[in-house]
Amino acid sequence: MYPDGSWRMAEPGDSLLLKQNLQKSETIGYPDDSLDPLENRNPSEGEEYVLRQWYELDQNIKAEEIKIQDAFRKATNAQFKAAELLQNAEENKTLIESDRLAALHEDYEESVQYLRTAKLNQKEIKNISDESKKLANQSPQKIGKKLPRLRSRFETFMNEYDPGYVLPTGSNASSSKKEYSSVPVISTHEQEQSSSYKSPNTTSSKNSNINLPPHQLPKPYKSEPFHCTFLRDTLDEVTGKRRIVLEPGLLFTHTDPDLRPYFKSKELITCDGQLFRIDSYVYFNIDFQIASSHSQGNFGSLERGSLLRFRLLNGKYVTLYDLKSDEGRIDPYTGNTVFTGQYAIGKDEIKMLQSSSLDKMRILWRTGYEDYDVYKIDFFIDRLDCLLKK
Predict the structure, then answer these.
(1) Segment 281-334, tens digit of pLDDT
(2) How far apart, in whole angstroms, are the C-alpha atoms of residue 124 and residue 182?
(3) What is the CA radius of gyration of the chain?
(4) Which residue, among 189, 182, 124, has the nearest Cα to 157 in the 3D structure?
């Protein structure tokens, strides 16, 4: 707080300054509930105290929001896997033992409840976070009036979310190492199977293939000669801009090891990419074909501005952002759900993609992000060279 009444958010480097100016008796928590924390303070000190109280509460809320968002993402993945296992078992009832089928039904129902609880938690913490954000630009007097209600709402939510939770005092929530779960406890059967509640990328692809039969092991990647083939090379009569479009090509396929016995020769996710150029501007289209009729409910959508990040073999990262939103569509011929994203590639990103092969890819769905191993590691090296020379 400055002498003229203006103020700014506290920064880590301000800690010494605060210690010099605050009375030793001032603490973030109340040393004695019978004492008024604002008693014997001048107006400036009182306003500063209120701002500190709000700031620390806001940081606690943000920290919990991150944890709850992660729990929602895990719940979404769990429900999707449980649904896939059940659907494939129903389609092959003659090959599935009755007790195994019953267990899959139980897993699915529990995963639905798991997701429903996580979604409600996510919605409530977001509302609390939004309420806290609205206080940011208000005067200390108004913040002081609204802060008790916000604190009470947050504490009430956390007591229901985690009965053992205690609101940190005198420290930032980020320093708290307390762990807890926001969802129902996983059943013993689920712990034994564990497949329904693990992220597909918690283990390396090498480890995930240990138990696969020889005919289902992935084939080692072999770089093949790239044939520079264009779908079209046209000139727009109105704008005068040249449009060059390359043929699409495979980036990767992915099937969770737990679902492999049900998919046999096909893949859960097939990802194709396509490069095109309009004058000197380069764009990248990506299609996700998901062999599931309820993918829209599990993946959500690709939002405009959402992230697509490539990790290169040299350790560097290339980040692109979606230019449009896509809710997904059902292919009438295959029955697969198809999601399409479109990204602009700048000059710096082009240089990086030409300098090293691909390793992994992260895509941000509305329900959370997923990481995938890229199969066609020289996808961009081949196609960018072809496209830019035309």
Answers:
(1) 999 999 999 887 667 667 778 999 988 999 999 989 999 999 999 998 888 888
(2) 12
(3) 27
(4) 124
- Structure confidence at residue 35 (pLDDT): 41
- 91 pairs with which residues across the strands? none
The answer to whether the predicted template modeling score (pTM) of the entire model surpasses 0.85 is: no
Query: For 60-114, how does the pLDDT look when each residue is reduced to its tens digit (9 = 90+)?
Result: 898 888 888 888 888 888 888 888 788 778 877 777 788 888 888 888 888 888 8
Are 242 and 235 within 8 A, CB to CB? yes
- Please state the length of the chain: 390
Residue-wise pLDDT for 258-293, tens only, equals: 777 777 778 889 999 999 999 889 999 999 998 876
Q: How many angstroms from the chain centroid is the CA of residue 78?
A: 14
Q: What is 174-243 written as a DSSP string?
A: GG------SSPPPPHHHHHH-GGGS-TTSS-HHHHTTTS-GGGSPPPP--------EEEEEE-TTT--EE
Residue 307 and residue 297 in contact, taking contact as beta carbons nearer than 8 Å: no
Tokens encoding 260: 């492999």
Q: Which residues contact 18 (CB under 8 A, 6 or more apart)?
A: 10
DSSP string, 29-45: S-S-TTS-TTTT--HHH
Which two structure tokens, joined as six digits, stand for 29? 């928590």
- Using the CB atoms, write b or e for 147-181: b if 16+ within 10 Å: beebbebbeebbeebbeebeebeeeebeeeeeeee
CA distances (Å), 251 to each of 6, 82, 288, 311, 375, in order? 54, 26, 10, 14, 6
Dihedral sign (CA 193, 196, 200, 202): negative
Closest CA to 381 of 223, 244, 221: 223
Strands (E), 249-357: 249-254, 269-278, 281-290, 307-312, 317-321, 329-330, 337-345
282: exposed, middle or buried (Cβ count in 10 Å: 0-12, 13-18, 19+): buried
CB 386 within 8 A of CB 228: yes
Question: From CA 226, how far away is CA 385, in angstroms rounded?
Answer: 11
Nearest-angstrom CA–CA distance, 217 and 31: 64
What is each CA distance from 369 to 52, 72, 117, 143, 366, in whole angstroms? Answer: 34, 11, 20, 35, 8
Structure token pair of residue 175: 């320093």
Return the domain boundaries, the chain.
1-198, 203-389
